[in-house]
Design brief:
The protein is an all-alpha fold and about 475 residues long. The chain has a two-stranded antiparallel sheet. Helix 4 packs across helix 6 and helix 6 crosses helix 7. It is found in: Cell inner membrane.
């Protein structure tokens, strides 16, 4: 394993990440809130540490193998997540513990959106902006990881069955095409962010709130600058803008990439994709169920309010954003539980959404249907086709393996939380909220995670990483085979 090359790359990433501290420092200067010192201090600390890792190893540029790639990906998220906690640690407001600082940083970077901080409306603008920009960088990191990096390592999302899509890179080693793909993805990501911020601004948000919420919307993160989240604005227009951009961001960025590369965006192009059709179908079904039940229980005074709240909460929770406009945990119990389970599906593969991804659920469904056919006709040969393409047994086996690992990690994390003293409902929903990178849960964690004990928070940090790194990326480092030369 090329350890010195890996250290060089991690050092470069750390030095680059230090530059992000200058943005909240400028916000502090602009609003004169006196919160700029922690970010300037962190900038120099990270720049020094990054340079110290890079300089002695700057000439070690050996070709990296897949095994090196796994370690770099895991180190990227753990090192950057740890470094991101420094401003929270040294800031006077909020005054948080080491555990809370790490939790908030990892929650932002993995776009989970679970927070331990209360009183957001009273925090300095620099701190608020920092939380949002962490999510934005995390969201872009997820896109590049899912579309450009993981396929190279052989564990990319199930979007790889579409041979005609030019987005995912299928080469066996790091090539310039990854850099080109990542660059194009940055343009798309930045364009969507600018469009979202502009729409929020026109809808009545202040420029600060518009930019901040566009970061967490496109990243499907869920952090807000207000304790009441999107509900603070009490605006149907803002709710609808959030829904539209969450749906766009929850789509496979390979589709956006290919659409932009072809010179134009056409709805028919997206509709040809079976995962996209399944995603829209799931969203529509969830919305109609929530809408009808809210009407039946007379939860809201008007049909329009029920429509607005059902649409917003359905999209927000099922895409794993976690924005709220109302206490959805106070809805008829069936709905919060349904929406929590919908987060296990999440967004499309290659999106900023969490969960197991739509394409995997689609393939599991097709595999289940095939097994039932085999029971009726044992000697018949059935193939699983998606979009007219027959899938190899290796792809199906990979999906089942992922599902098994996902379930195992979920059970282990849940048992660990119960062992720390958390009640069963809170433990279940907390793991669902972090492993699916959702944010809000039920019970003790329905609003925030501030009251969770420290041991449980560390378990949840690990759960966030497992969910964000597609389980296997982190799990493989725990196997003896990986470390054998």
């Amino acid at each position: 394993m090329q350890f010195r090359s890996i250290i060089r790359i991690v050092g470069l990433l750390l030095a680059l990440f230090s530059v992000s501290m200058l943005a909240p420092a400028l916000v502090a200067l602009l609003y004169r809130d006196g919160a700029g010192v922690p970010f300037v201090t962190t900038f120099f600390v990270l720049l020094f540490c990054g340079t110290a890792c890079w300089f002695p190893n700057r000439h070690h540029k050996q070709e990296l193998k897949a095994r090196d790639g796994f370690l770099i990906v895991v180190l990227f998220w753990t090192v950057i997540g740890s470094a991101g906690s420094i401003p929270f640690l040294i800031a006077d407001n909020p005054n948080v513990s080491v555990t809370d600082a790490f939790f908030e940083s990892f929650s932002a970077l993995t776009t989970t959106g679970a927070t331990v901080i209360v009183g957001l409306d009273d925090l300095p603008k620099a701190i608020l902006f920092y939380r949002q920009i962490l999510q934005w960088f995390g969201g872009m990191g997820i896109i590049v990881l899912a579309v450009a990096i993981l396929p190279v390592l052989g564990i990319g999302g199930m979007q790889l069955y579409r041979a005609e899509i030019p987005g995912p890179v299928k080469d066996s080693k790091m090539t310039p095409r990854i850099a080109e793909t990542a660059k194009a993805l940055w343009y798309i990501y930045l364009s969507l962010t600018i469009a979202c911020a502009t729409a929020y601004w026109f809808a009545g948000m202040t420029p600060f709130d518009a930019i901040s919420h566009s970061f967490s919307t496109i990243a499907i993160g869920g952090f807000s600058t207000h304790d009441a989240s999107i509900g603070y604005f009490d605006s149907h227009a803002i709710n609808m803008i959030t829904v539209v951009f969450l749906l766009i961001s929850a789509c496979n960025y390979s589709l956006h990439f290919a659409a932009f590369a072809s010179g134009g965006v056409h709805p028919k192009y997206y509709w040809k994709d079976p995962e996209f059709r399944a995603f829209i179908g799931i969203q529509s079904l969830l919305f109609f169920v929530c809408f009808l039940i809210l009407l039946n229980h007379h939860t809201y005074d008007s049909i329009y309010d029920a429509f607005d709240q059902a649409l917003f909460q359905t999209v927000s929770i099922s895409t794993t954003a976690g924005f709220t406009t109302t206490g959805f945990s106070e809805w008829p119990l069936f709905l919060p539980v349904l929406l929590l389970f919908s987060s296990f599906i999440g967004g499309c593969a290659g999106s900023t959404g969490g969960g197991m991804k739509v394409i995997r659920i689609l393939l599991l469904t097709l595999q289940g249907a095939r097994e039932m056919k085999r029971l009726v006709h044992p000697r018949a040969v059935y193939t699983i086709k998606v979009g007219g393409t027959a899938l190899s047994q290796r792809v199906v086996d990979a999906v089942w393996g992922f599902f098994s690992a996902y379930a195992l990690v979920f059970v282990v994390c849940m048992l660990a939380l119960i062992a720390t003293g958390m009640d069963e409902l809170s433990a279940f929903s907390a793991v669902a909220a972090t492993l699916n990178n959702l944010g809000p849960g039920l019970g003790e964690v329905s609003v925030h995670f501030g009251d969770v004990n420290d041991n449980a928070k560390w378990v949840l940090i690990v759960s966030m990483l497992f969910g964000r790194l597609e389980i296997f990326t982190l799990l493989i480092l725990l196997t003896p085979t990986f470390w054998r030369s």
